[in-house]
Write a structure and sequence with these properties.
- Keywords: ATP-binding, Cytoplasm, Hydrolase, Ligase, Metal-binding, Nucleotide-binding, tRNA processing, Zinc.
- This protein is α/β, with parallel strands linked by helices.
- It is built from 19 helices and 20 strands.
- The strands form four sheets. The protein has a six-stranded mixed β-sheet with strand order 3-2-1-4-6-5, with helices on both faces. Strands 10, 11, 12, 13, 14 and 15 form a six-stranded mixed β-sheet that branches. Strands 17-16-18-19-20 form a five-stranded mixed β-sheet.
- The relative contact order is 0.07.
- The structure holds zinc ion (ZN).
């Protein structure tokens, strides 16, 4: 083939094929100009293409196309594979539209051929004109993301997405190569054909660069989408979704639905994302009659799988679902099971499916994620005490000590690699007149002294309140392996915020768990602020060494606007849980300590 003349347009067509030189690749060849040109260009560059033709059986003369492509491949000395599938019948049987069915069947066929021939890539001949049509169509349909046809997805590569269509025909003319015209491509009743034949030429008469412009929109939109999609991926379980921008929430919902293999319409994603952002409840029935719910700031993909007990049941314990009168003894006091399920934001229709272990109406264990244990139930079941619960208890004791001293009640401990406490700290900002004296910093410093190394790899920082950016930065500097916090801090918490998103750039991302004994931590904060409203309360009177006039937001006692609204200090089931989306944190927490 090297003796063939290389016509001028090949200057654009051949360079994108360089990665495939010497490689076996599958090319979908319909017989149209684009795919015929791609096949010939691949042969010219020295790739090893396999021509694959799918007869969609949509036109009476479609068998003629198959024979034509077979002869073309034979003439080029290229392996040829074909299949005939009644796409219309598949569409009817599976409930897909025709275009969708054709696309799915085609890619299934191409993948099969690729496996047979051990080809690394499947190439399609989409050009810049296809890209322009796709973007325009998306724009007219009101799609949120105009990213067009992706240059690659899985094994599929589309090397000519930036190549002007005119070059393709010029290339074929130069080779003296003909091709088959699909008559449906000339039928303006088809929206795509109408865009190609009527709309784009009209636009091009006023905007000669319209094809390139629309392709540019696709490229930029894809770049934006990748960033926003990445942010959505990082919405880990400790993030408050209500604080996220709608663009991120939409992608978060779409990713969750896609991961669960659930089909959806764009409007349904919008509704679910809006409910997440507004903290409202929304029920949506997806195609296929699958119900999903947003409630309590969380997306529930029914049917929910609730954890079953994974330990032998002690004598007298029975496994069942909830019953009237069920109660549960928690660190904060005895509560009704129904209130525990409500507080955990379990959707109403799911509550009768949550497994419960009980002795009579005394509930011992609730199969939430993670499970909630009654006080003493772990011991009764012979289960090891949760070391994080114990460590948080220690941190809470330090927080109470801080409250006694008139400080914002935050406590922290650092667990060493072996699980022992190697550092302890509480907030001492007021004592020192220094707003950087946070519990976490004190605990981290002590841990470094105890272990004799500044690097706390393998250590866990346990703190009662979600760390601020300063303390998260310190934990990252010290290479802390895991951060566990109690109450979320929607105002000043760094996790789930910008610093969390940037944490990956440190080359070290600690594992984060939020909501451990959150109710106790939040209650302690609420009580402290309530006491701060009563200046004569001796425990909270300002110490004499206050800084003269610090900025208002950092001045203890905290301004009225930062004090949580008074709420009944009800014990929360999250005292014994660490579900981050159901923390019992107050609506307002201090911006500074
Ligand atoms: Zn801090």
């Amino acid at each position: 083939m090297s003796d063939l003349p290389v016509p001028g347009p090949a200057a654009h067509l051949l360079p994108p094929l360089a990665p495939f030189v010497g490689r076996v690749v599958v090319v979908g060849v319909s017989g149209g100009a684009d795919s015929v040109a791609l096949l010939r260009a691949l042969v010219l560059t020295g790739a090893r293409p396999v021509a694959a033709h799918l007869d969609h059986a949509l036109r009476p003369d479609s068998a003629g196309d198959a024979a034509w492509v077979r002869d073309l491949a034979a003439g080029l000395g290229v392996p040829f594979e074909m299949a005939r599938v009644d796409v219309a019948a598949v569409a009817t049987r599976r409930g897909w539209n025709l275009e969708d069915a054709a696309r799915r069947v085609r890619y299934e066929f191409l993948s099969r051929v690729a496996r047979q021939h051990r080809a690394e890539s499947i190439l399609t001949a989409h050009t810049r004109r296809d890209q322009a049509e796709t973007v325009l169509l998306g724009l007219l349909r009101g799609e949120a993301v105009l990213s067009g046809i992706p240059p690659e997805r899985g094994r599929v590569r589309r090397p000519w997405l930036d190549v002007p269509r005119a070059d393709v025909e010029a290339f074929l003319h130069g080779l003296g190569q003909d091709w088959r015209e699909d008559p449906t491509n000339a039928d303006p009743a088809q929206t795509r054909a109408w865009l190609r034949l009527d709309v784009l030429p009209l636009l091009a008469s006023r905007f000669p660069g319209v094809e390139a412009a629309l392709a540019r929109v696709a490229r930029l939109s894809r770049e934006d989408d990748a960033v926003l999609g990445d942010l959505a991926t990082r919405l880990t379980t400790h993030v408050s979704l209500a604080s996220q921008p709608p663009a991120v929430l939409r992608r978060h919902v779409a990713q969750a639905l896609a991961a669960a293999g659930l089909p959806y319409h764009a409007g349904q994603v919008d509704r679910l994302a809006a409910a997440l952002g507004a903290g409202e409840t929304a029920h949506v029935t997806l195609p296929g009659a699958r119900n999903v719910t947003v409630t309590g700031g969380r997306l529930w993909l029914a049917p929910q799988v609730w954890p079953a007990p994974d330990f032998p049941l002690p004598a007298g314990w029975t496994l069942r679902t909830r019953q009237p009168g069920d109660r549960l003894r928690l660190p904060g006091g005895t509560r009704k099971l129904s209130d525990v399920l409500t507080d955990a934001k379990v959707p109403r229709e799911e509550r009768d499916r949550v497994p419960v272990l009980a002795v009579g109406t005394d509930v011992q264990w609730v199969g939430l994620t993670p499970p909630v244990w009654a006080v003493g139930a772990r011991e009764a079941a012979g289960q090891p005490a949760d070391p994080l619960q114990a460590a948080m208890g220690e941190a809470l004791a330090l927080a109470r000590e801080a409250a006694q001293a008139g400080e914002v009640p935050v406590g922290a401990v650092v667990l060493g690699p072996g699980g022992a406490t190697v550092g302890r700290g509480r907030n001492t900002s007021r004592e020192h007149g220094d707003m950087t004296r946070h519990a976490e910093l004190a605990a981290l410093r002590e841990a470094a002294r105890t272990l004799g190394t500044p690097y706390l790899t393998g250590c866990t920082l346990v703190v009662t309140l979600e760390p601020c950016p300063m303390c998260l930065g310190a934990a990252l500097e010290a290479r802390v392996g895991r951060i566990v916090y109690g109450a979320a801090n929607p105002k000043a918490g760094a996790l789930g915020g910008v610093s969390d998103l940037l944490a990956a750039h440190w080359g070290h991302t600690p594992q984060v768990t939020g909501g451990v004994r959150a109710g106790e931590a939040a209650r302690l904060l609420r009580e402290t602020f309530r006491a701060l409203r009563q200046p004569r309360e001796p425990a909270y009177s300002p110490p004499p060494q206050l800084p003269p006039s610090p900025p208002p937001q950092s001045q203890p006692p905290l301004p009225e606007s930062l004090i949580p609204a008074s709420q009944p200090p009800a014990p929360s089931p999250q005292d014994a849980s660490n579900d981050p989306h159901t923390t019992g944190s107050p609506p307002d927490l201090p911006r500074c300590r």
